[in-house]
Amino acid sequence: MLTDLQVAIFGGDARQLEVIRKLAEQGANLVLVGFDQLDHGFTGASKLDIGEVDFSKLDVIILPVNGSGPNGEIETIFSNKRIVLTAEHLKRTPQHCHVYSGITNSYLNKIVSQSGKGHTQLFDRDDVAIYNSIPTVEGTIMMVIQNTDTTIHNSNTVVLGFGRVGMSVARAFDALGANVKVGARKPEHLARISEMGFIPFHLDHLQKEVTNTDVCINTIPFQIVTSDVISKMPTQTLIIDLASKPGGTDFKYAEKRGIKALLAPGLPGIVAPKTAGQILGNVLSQLIGEQMSTRKGKV
Ligand code: NAP
User: Fold this and answer.
1) 289 CA from centroid of ligand 1 (Å)
2) Which of 15, 130, 131, 165 to mutate to test the pocket of ligand 1 (most atoms within 8 A of CB)?
């Protein structure tokens, strides 16, 4: 149980509602910032403007999945008010206060380090990334179906990257009957791709591997689907880029060539916000519980 803990939850999307639900169930005292348009009331939770928050009492701060905007703006679908988190806010929190976000950026890193507070990026954790790959794959399948007039079955599908998302994507498209090729650079990845029954290729040979591609799914957060690669693809190829913004595709060149290329960020929050929120809520409740036990042990 998280009784007696003061947790501030800032904005976000529908995933945050599951986080609120989970922490409220655990008995935490919740301060909700950026939720003034949310009708639902949660036991033990009060909705405040950022100016009304007593930061000196907070044990935990939970930010939206994307952390903040480049200048500290907190995105929220539950309010039209502008919310900006600053280093001054964080400096007012107690020394043990810990900040959680899905991912981070240079602004957030800067203000957290200026305030000397701990910060956990949830999507850095393998468990979160692997669970999260499930709704990501379902969203990818949805996008491919919506943007093609052929079946996934029998399609020539190229997956780039064999990390947590790439592996799940390759497995699901294979199960749907696609001819799946996976591009990676590490020998152990190429070996595992082969062991799992997909066709492996080294990324050095990407240009020659895409000449008969129907669907190309990129998971590599690096410019990999370059103009040279796109120029070798058939014009009916669909590129779905799952890598975090700005993706790994030369979108301008794809458009010039008449190839449909879509950057598809945040699919879990779009196709399965409840599941995606439960994944975050479960891990947050565990991490905050551990943080609380460690602190009690030190006292
Ligand atoms: P991951 O486990 O770190 O996998 C990344 C893959 O990219 C690995 O195979 C890695 O290979 C490869 N890679 C990285 N840099 C490379 C480079 N310079 N050249 C060649 N290969 C490179 O990450 P993940 O969890 O699968 O996530 C992949 C991306 O999808 C991330 O950008 C993540 O933010 C994003 N994502 C998007 C959604 C969505 O809804 N669109 C959902 C979840 C995640 P090595 O091991 O050889 O480095």
Assistant:
1) 29
2) 165
